[in-house]
Amino acid sequence: TKPVAEIDDRLGVYGRAEATVSPGLRLGALAYANGGDRVSVIDGQYAWKTRFLTLDAHWQPDDDTVVIAQALAGDTEMGVTPQGLIMAHVGYHAAYILASRLFPAGSLSARIEVFGVDDRSFVAEDDNNERGGAFTASWAMPVSTGTEFVAESVSVWSNRPSRARLGDDPERLNLSARMALRTRF
């Protein structure tokens, strides 16, 4: 496939609204629809018809603390079978909340998220349903101007039934930890 090829020359639309509720709180919403023509084929490529809505909040109760949250839900579809069925039709959703606090020695951040994929086509043949979530914690400490030390831990868990067909456990937990020295210039 060619994931960024222009197939249908159709315009999409999106709109965003944002409101400042108080000096430390902003709320926003964005709606997106690409208007893709999922049934036309050019050189074996289909356009994807994708739509989603996202809501977000940014709260800064003081100079050293920020909390950001976002939720997204949408769907995408592509192609048509000779019987007129949609070849690929997937709903998806995700949400997260991130909190970060600045201290004299550095900053501490934590993020928790959930996600899901709802397969709406040919599930018996190719089940792409999935549910999961993640937790991330990180510490960033300045070393010098433009350079910081970062330590991060990430836990991702998910349930994807199709893993069983490959002999894997549908339930999976991945843990990782990393340290980095980042320089900006």
What does this molecule look like?
This protein has 185 residues and is mainly β. Helix content is 0%, strand content 69%. It is built from no helices and eleven strands. A nine-stranded antiparallel sheet has the order 1-2-5-6-7-8-9-10-11, with no helix packed on it. Strands 3-4 form a two-stranded antiparallel sheet. Strand 6 and strand 7 form a beta hairpin. It starts with 12 loop residues before the first strand and ends with a strand. The model has no long low-confidence stretch (mean pLDDT 93).
Q: Give a quick account of the main beta sheet: strands, pairing sense, barrel closure.
A: 9 strands, antiparallel
Tell me how many strands there are.
11
Q: Which structural class should the secondary elements be placed in? A: mainly beta
Radius of gyration: 21 Å
Summary of the model, kept short:
The protein has 185 residues and is mostly beta strands. The protein contains no helices and 11 strands. It is globular.
Element layout with pairings:
Blueprint lengths: L12 E10 L2 E9 L7 E2 L2 E2 L1 E15 L2 E16 L5 E18 L2 E14 L10 E15 L2 E13 L11 E13 L2
Antiparallel strand pairs: 1-2, 2-5, 3-4, 5-6, 6-7, 7-8, 8-9, 9-10, 10-11
Keywords:
nine-stranded antiparallel sheet, mainly beta, 185 residues, 69% strand, two-stranded antiparallel ribbon, globular
